[in-house]
Amino acid sequence: MVEPKQERAVKTRDDILRAAALAFDELGYRGASMREIMRRAGVTLGAVYFHFENKEALARAVIRAQPEVMVPRVHSQGLQRLVDLSLVWAHQLNVNPLLRAGVRLAVEQRSHGIEDDTSFYEWEKIFQGWLEVAREQGELAPGVEPEVVAEFVVGAMTGTQQHAHLTGTTASLPQRIVHMWQLLLPGIACAQAAAAIDLDPGRGQ
Amino acid sequence: MVEPKQERAVKTRDDILRAAALAFDELGYRGASMREIMRRAGVTLGAVYFHFENKEALARAVIRAQPEVMVPRVHSQGLQRLVDLSLVWAHQLNVNPLLRAGVRLAVEQRSHGIEDDTSFYEWEKIFQGWLEVAREQGELAPGVEPEVVAEFVVGAMTGTQQHAHLTGTTASLPQRIVHMWQLLLPGIACAQAAAAIDLDPGRGQ
């Protein structure tokens, strides 16, 4: 009878994480109390503290959950996979509070005294992996370093999201990401690979 | 005798602005009190409130002062000017607390309840202007829209700065900006113009 109990614990943890994300997204880090999160998750305060030591631990978990929500429905690899991941990310930011709260917390963490650069490195690792596949497939332009591209793209996506958000145009994010690839592909991909990439924002849905 | 008095007022306002920037940069928006800013500026609390209604007004002034500190020493125009401005920005962020505080506040503004997207639009306007010059000079690749490039570059620079900052590698910012242009130039400039651009980070000093 150990299995169902563990499953229940995993589900409870997940419910709390989602409730916390919704609360952080709506009320900000400071505005969201552990009590409010408990109320939204429909669990006891004891359950919240059983899974997360304090609000900061919850915020870190929300920040780190970012890459998990990013699974493209379309099968792809190499450069197209990178593009698809960025399009899923742009779409999910408009519809998924867990991702939105994770990005918001990652960006504002300094003002809350949280220091956690894990999510940046996670993204970079994932992007770099697909860029290495792209290189093996002969998609990259000569001299292009997967590491340099991964680092730049993660920074550019972070800033593009923020710029869209602060200027009140988050809905434009998928189109902005398409623009990013239109500007970047000539510099990172060989002409044949660049021409083959599908930049339809619908791939992110 | 009106002139000297006005000059003094301008200087006092400037001193307060710089003191506030130093305080915001070191202590964060919440940590910096009006009293602390007064102490650092070497003025009375009355003088601070004469020039700035409250801390939020000071923060907005610091955010808006960003483009003013960005004057490249090297003469240039078109695409090279855009590159030079970004290199000055990358260098100044490491040495100029007024710029650093402005960027930090612009990025974290939501968590402080300030909403001010002026600095983003200011940057965009400046960049778009030079991109239009670049187009007139025949530097841009066919079909490249100054507006789209300006919007993307402002977002990418914001995110690159933040990514460098959160991963504790702010000193790498000039090199990251060089990487950005290496990746972007093939997509936005015609081959001849791209080859003529000088990406020496020393141009920003």
From TrEMBL, chains A, B:
Q: Which GO terms describe its molecular function?
A: DNA-binding transcription factor activity; transcription cis-regulatory region binding
Residue ranges of the annotated DNA-binding region, renumbered to this chain: 33-52
Q: Which UniProt keywords apply?
A: DNA-binding, Transcription, Transcription regulation
Q: Name one Pfam family in it.
A: TetR_N
Q: Which InterPro entries match?
A: ArpA-like, CprB_TetR_C, DNA-bd_HTH_TetR-type_CS, Homeodomain-like_sf, HTH-type_TetR-like_transc_reg, HTH_TetR, Tet_transcr_reg_TetR-rel_C_sf
The segment(s) forming the HTH tetR-type domain are: 10-70
Q: Which domain of life is it from?
A: Bacteria
Q: What is this protein called?
A: AcrR family transcriptional regulator
